[in-house]
Model the fold of this input.
Amino acid sequence: LAKTTQPISMDSYEGQEVNITCSHNNIATNDYITWYQQFPSQGPRFIIQGYKTKVTNEVASLFIPADRKSSTLSLPRVSLSDTAVYYCLVGARYNQGGKLIFGQGTELSVKP
Amino acid sequence: GAGVSQSPSNKVTEKGKDVELRCDPISGHTALYWYRQSLGQGLEFLIYFQGNSAPDKSGLPSDRFSAERTGGSVSTLTIQRTQQEDSAVYLCASSRTSGSGTGELFFGEGSRLTVL
Done:
């Protein structure tokens, strides 16, 4: 299983771009990289998924270098409501093999 | 239902009592996961179901914990003889195991367990 490492916490201000990097040195060939967001007292929810290069949706962008040993979640122009914990998860797109292990997550605090 | 449903949302129990936590996954999702999240901590994997089978129970912290899934749908996590260290939020997630989408996990809102 690919272990992930993220910064434990990050601070930002409203309107700034935030980049959270996740390291996953032993990612497997068929692994995808998926990011989740968790607000207090809620379950995590899907933000974005990618395999290589760049993926963009209405919420975020995901940058994955050619060696795929890391990935960067980019949140453009954050607001106070983006304060949450962000988890990077590495695994098969359709997991049939067992456990999916989340890393410790990055607690993002957005200040006015 | 439209999403993953968990019950009860809150449970307060006395040390030594048994508790049952229920998860109703999204219809058609064959994979089901239980995670535990202690206050201020990350997600601790407990058990994974593929259909009614649990090929990976490696995360269950002790033999006081057990889980089952019936009909490829509803799952129950049972904690016997609860201890104070069992206090946490228990999260259930489900996902597809094939298709053309992302295979993402859909989480319920969790069951908050407090053991006095």
